[in-house]
Specification:
The chain has 289 residues and is α+β, with helices and mostly antiparallel strands. The chain has 3 domains: 67 residues, Structural Genomics Hypothetical 15.5 Kd Protein In mrcA-pckA Intergenic Region, Chain A, CATH 3.10.290.10; 83 residues, Pseudouridine synthase; 111 residues, Pseudouridine synthase, CATH 3.30.2350.10. Helix content is 18%, strand content 26%. The protein has 6 helices and 14 strands. The strands form 3 sheets. Strands 4, 5, 6, 7, 8, 11, 12, 13 and 14 form a 9-stranded mixed β-sheet that branches. A hairpin with a 6-residue loop joins strand 13 and strand 14. Helix 1 packs across helix 2. It is globular.
């Protein structure tokens, strides 16, 4: 639960968390645990608590559903925030994910745009970690969305790939969209192509692998993974466009840097996130050339 929820009534916080006041009322009737203790709807939150909803549909009334831990916030003001998303966390609700997303973790803290995904102006895949900027008001959402459209949001990733790049730097320009035969995949073989441009630079070489710094010029769904796989450099641990790696348990893709001009103040923000521990540990097992 975000610290910004301090002082808010439990039922009002839940309304933003579960979708409506009616759903919040039902959740409270079924039971809500705040730091392990059942609380009434009028309970005033302190901010930062661990919140769980007792499963209404479970035969065991003591069954507890999954909690959503807010990710670290690396920068914030009243207009926007930059969070450091861990791998495994889905950004917004969708098929198979409701109540366990980044949007749920930040309920009451973000706003603007689609009410199903408030504050979200760009995405990271579930198993991609790193920096994501979110809006905290409707006006901030509109200004940040315009920044993204004008390509003013600089996004740099660290990616470990299988194979050896043909050059130290490269630019991949290839339109992508939903695959003609499999709509769950993004592909160059598509009936709905959209412009997609990716830049990369080699920052480390290993036997059979390369560590790349990747910069997005456009930001299409799965763009980095699809583009790198298209030039025979699949991202390590990517089960969709490459090969899953049980030793890693996720794809080696991390949004390590965000830079942009604040849409209200004009201040240039440059924010960085270190490689997560599991990626550092995996890289440490490899011998650099």
């Amino acid at each position: 639960m975000p610290a910004a929820a301090a002082g808010e009534r439990l039922d009002r916080f839940l309304a933003g968390h579960v979708g409506s006041r009616a759903e919040a009322e039902r959740a409270v009737e079924s039971g809500v645990l705040v730091d392990g203790e059942r609380r009434p709807k009028s309970y005033r939150l302190a901010g930062g608590e661990r919140l769980r909803l007792l499963g209404r549909a479970e035969s065991d009334p003591g069954h507890v559903g999954p909690a959503v831990e807010p990710p670290p916030i690396v920068w914030q003001d009243e207009h926007l925030a930059v969070v450091d998303k861990p791998a495994g966390l889905v950004v917004h609700p969708g098929a198979g994910h409701a109540g366990d997303t980044l949007v749920d973790a930040l309920a009451g803290f973000v706003a603007g745009g689609d009410p199903e995904r408030p504050g979200i102006v760009h995405r990271l895949d579930r198993d991609t970690s790193g920096l994501l900027v979110v809006a905290r008001s409707e006006e901030a959402y509109e200004r940040l969305s315009e920044l993204v459209r004008e390509r003013g949001l600089e996004r740099v990733y660290a990616a470990l790939v299988r194979g050896r790049p043909a050059s130290r730097t490269g630019r991949i320009e290839a339109p992508i969209g939903r695959d003609r035969d499999d709509p769950t995949r993004i592909s160059l073989d598509t009936d709905t192509p959209r412009e997609a441009i990716t830049h990369f630079e080699v920052v480390g070489l290993y036997p059979g692998h390369a560590l790349l710094e990747v910069r997005l010029e456009t930001g299409r769904m799965h763009q980095i993974r699809v583009h790198l796989a298209a030039i025979d450099l699949p991202v390590v641990g990517d089960p969709v466009y490459g090969i899953a790696d049980a030793a890693l348990g996720r794809q080696f893709l991390h949004a390590r840097r965000l830079a942009f001009r604040h849409p209200f103040t004009g201040e240039r923000l440059e924010l960085e996130s270190p490689l997560p521990a599991e990626l550092q540990a995996y890289l440490a097992t490899m011998r650099e050339l």
